[in-house]
Amino acid sequence: MSNVFETVIGLEVHIELLTQTKMYCSCKNTFGETENTVVCPVCAGYPGTLPAVNKRAAELAVRAGLAFNCNINRRFKMSRKNYFYPDLPKGYQISQLYAPICKNGFLEIKGKKYPISDIHLEEDAGKLCGNGVDFNRCGIPLIELVTEPCFHSASEAVDFLKELRLNMIYLGISDCRIEQGSMRCDINVSVHRRGEPLGERCELKNVSGFSNVFGGIMYEEERQKKIISEGNRVFRETRRWDPVKKESALLRSKEDTADYRYFDDPDLPEIILTEEFVNGVLTELPMLPNKKRLYYTALGISGQAAEDIILDPIKDRIFRLCVDVNLCGANVLSGLINGAASEFLNEKPNYLNEKNINGFCLALSKIGRLREKGVVSSTSAKLLFENHILSGSDIDTLLKELKLEQVSDSDYTEELVRRVLTDNGKSAEDYVKGKTNALAFLVGQCMKLSGGRADPVLCRELLLKRIDAGDV
Ligand code: ADP
Ligand code: MG
Ligand code: ZN
């Protein structure tokens, strides 16, 4: 009997959709309103009301399916999933069981394909709160995305969720605001001895936040390994992850599909998606992260620089706009966007809007061009950019006024290097002894002394020449 344990994890991810209205009524789909102010007889479950399926929600579900290479079910019915809980005023949730809208897809991460068994449409339930139940969330459209039991560690599951979230944001399907609960998941974890069949699984219900997912899985793995090592059996259970105590606790022994008494909702007709509808969604698919990674690196930027851009949709938009402006190469652009622009936006997170974003990108592109031609150093480019954005003054005028033009004059640079070496003899010795980063420090000193105007490449060259000549 092997003593090596293996862990298997499958995820059921709930994602709230960015629609105007709720899933089956015309209440607004919003967050953060006063409790029980966004409800109507339909989503409050009054008898005698009739639901109608939100077309936009179906469209977003199809968009997710196409993005993740699923087969799209062109005819389906919505089913009632019956259970009794105070957050569910109808006593059932209108969901899908027999024919989910999308089936058998995958999401590829770093060359590995993670299979998605289905994506189905459903509605959210209310939320228990201090005074009872807040029904505002009742009927908010959701997709539930179910993966195969295909992950083998907490970090693998978290990486999948991060990549899924990024895709959802680029797809415009959801904002996946974890702190607002618009992306939550049920985590199925089982443990078995190597070489043996998969173990019985436990489900951690409704976990949100990557660190909770990580912590929950790590805890559950250890808990189950201990049970098995002691010769006992793991029973199928639904458990709750307590993020404060950092432990999971029994919620209920797992219910079966049969417990939910699923049946087709008699109030809703069969839904038929026409080929035109599905093709329309397909043609509108935006470029997704995996494609962006290939495309951006093919434009000549490093994998890391591309990742830094793609992980931040605002930077990504800036990059795309600048590439369209086409005044300088992608490499210089990515440097400016991950450097100067990023620092600027960190300080002024509300600066950008639809009116000024084009001007912002044009300025970056013009400065990128100056960088490329060697007119400004990266330090000066940053100063120039900030000054231009804040004052609105012309870039060429600022270049002269602020004396930011790079000086590549060799006499000037020789003198600079001489002075830096005189003042920092110790660093030059360190470099000779093998401390390579001492050279970067010396170049930095030249830049500092020149007020950012020196040409760092020339400085480096002349520094090396002097050091090699033993001239320190
Ligand atoms: P059910 O019908 O009981 O809900 P599903 O087949 O729909 O079961 O699976 C629900 C989730 O549990 C899926 O995410 C799946 O990947 C996961 N799962 C199934 N078997 C295992 C297992 N042995 N270990 C971990 N996760 C599992
Ligand atoms: Mg299930
Ligand atoms: Zn309503």
Tell me what you see in this structure:
With 472 residues, this protein is α+β, with helices and mostly antiparallel strands. The chain folds into three domains: 5-282, no CATH class; 289-401, no CATH class; 410-468, Arc Repressor Mutant, subunit A. The chain has helices spanning 55-67, 154-171, 210-229, 275-283, 289-298, 303-310, 313-325, 330-347, 357-372, 378-391, 395-401, 410-423, 425-432, 437-449, 456-468; strands spanning 5-16, 71-72, 75-76, 79-82, 92-95, 102-109, 112-123, 127-129, 132-134, 141-147, 183-193, 201-207, 237-242, 247-253, 263-264, 271-272. It has a nine-stranded mixed β-sheet. A three-stranded antiparallel β-sheet has the order 5-4-15, with no helix packed on it. Strand 11 (183-193) and strand 12 form a beta hairpin. Helix 12 (410-423) packs across helix 15 (456-468) and helix 13 (425-432) runs antiparallel to helix 14 (437-449). The structure holds adenosine-5'-diphosphate, magnesium ion and zinc ion. Zinc ion (ZN) binds at residues 22, 25, 27, 39-40, 42-43, 139.
